[in-house]
Amino acid sequence: MLPLVSIPWLDPEYLLSAFGPWAVLGVCLLVFAETGLLVGFLFPGDTLLIITGILAATNPGALGLPIWLIAILISVAAFAGGELGYLIGHKVGPRIFERRESGLFSVANVNRTNAFFERFGPMAVIIARFVPVIRTFAPIMAGVGHMSYRRYSLFNAIGALVWGMGITLLGFGIGHIPPIADFVSSYIDLILLAAVLATVIPIAIHYLHGVHQAKKAEQGPGAERPDVSAAPHDA
Predict the structure, then answer these.
(1) Which of 99, 125, 166, 192 has the highest local Cβ count within 10 Å?
(2) Is the model's pLDDT at 36 over the cut of 90?
(3) Nearest to 175 by CA among 62, 87, 51
(4) Which string of DSSP letters, residue by residue, matches 37-58?
């Protein structure tokens, strides 16, 4: 493994050594946080699930549980996180987003996300599972937009099952293909670094764009360049 990323909670070997027999619980907690808490977008969920699947295939005894049970537990954690995210959005979301007009927290973002839900309907809940960052904010936005709780929970369950089991089993399958498994194991730090950058860079760009738009809105039409043609001329 290339020692390029020194972030312990992104290193699967660190997770195994730190959590020991509770490694699966640690993975589930990270999955729960990714979809249930606003800070969850910091966690590369897809990569974590793939790595978990690979570890289950290459070292079956390391995680202490069969792959089918690991995949189910991850799906349950993803579902629970999505439910918490919805409740947060429903209860306190409007107050948070209506008071801020820049960056990620703004009425404009609420309107754009609501339009996304209106375009794709409840399927948006499933689609969002496979999109980093959106996976974190979609449950909260569904709550802010007051999507039907029963409908949301149904599609949240479907999305959590498809994503949690699908990505984990994908990693498990990769683990049974030695060349690919060896490549992932050798360059896992690079893969994790790319995953982090792919997550952080769009957030930073979006935030800076939001700040710029907010400043332009605050300046208003009065900030436009004055019309010099209307100035009085010397006799």
Answers:
(1) 125
(2) no
(3) 51
(4) SGGGGGS-HHHHHHHHHHHHHH
Say if residues 108 and 207 touch (Cβ distance below 8 Å).
Answer: no
User: What single-letter amino acid sits at 197?
Assistant: L
Tell me which residue of 62, 208, 48, 218 sits closest to 135, measured CA to CA.
48
This prediction has a pTM of 0.69
Tokens of residue 98, six digits: 């209506």
Supply the pLDDT for residue 142. 86
Cβ contact 74:27 at 8 Å? yes
Cβ(152)–Cβ(122) under 8 Å? yes
Radius of gyration over alpha carbons of the chain, in Å?
22
Phi, psi of 181 (to 5 degrees): -60, -40
Helices (H), ranges, 10-122: 12-19, 23-36, 45-58, 67-91, 93-98, 107-120
pLDDT digits (tens, 9 = 90+) for 174-230: 888 888 777 876 776 676 567 656 656 766 676 577 667 767 776 765 554 555 555
Nearest to 27 by CA among 50, 60, 1: 50
Residue 13 in this model has a pLDDT that exceeds 90: no
Angle at 231 between CA 228 and CA 234, to 5 degrees: 125
Question: Could you read off the pLDDT of 117-163 as tens digits, one per residue?
Answer: 777 777 888 888 887 777 888 888 888 877 888 989 999 999 999 99
